[in-house]
């Protein structure tokens, strides 16, 4: 049995998506960033952005986590995906505080050294399990442990090895660290 609350939430989300898509169609957006594989645009008058990506793996993740904000709390919430356009709409996020950026940069530098020493494919989680948690601030370790579980929960093969974890790809959403690019 479907509850009335669920029906109303789905209806509200669909109306919200329709409104956002109308704004995109009417070119009510501005470019706010670009990376190796995509471009991000802010949708005017909203707290949403959309990304067009050429990276199939990135889009695959967005397709798995769309509408599952409570399950994938380490990822910026994705509201909508369009496979034919390789586009997805997600919540906007706030800049990462400098102390978190520094912690992530330091973790990544140690991970890179670890990966070179291991002479093979290792994930950030392999490093975290081996020695990274001893040398890393607790809030970042806690985030990485949750992220590790959520990466596994996606069911995407080798996502842990392909994860693009660096400080440029982490922001704040509702006072919590989230990945905005993966």
Give me the secondary-structure category. alpha+beta
For the biggest β-sheet, the strand order reads 1-2-3-5-4
The helix/strand series, from N terminus to C terminus, equals HEEEHEEHHHHEE
Percentage of residues in helical conformation: 40-55%
Can you tell me the overall shape? elongated
How would you sum up the major sheet?
Answer: 5 strands, antiparallel
Measured distance between first and last alpha carbons? 36 Å
Instruction: Give the integer mean of the pLDDT values.
Output: 90
Strand content: 15-25%
Radius of gyration: 17 Å
Number of helices: 6
Number of strands: 7
Provide the low-confidence segments as ranges: none
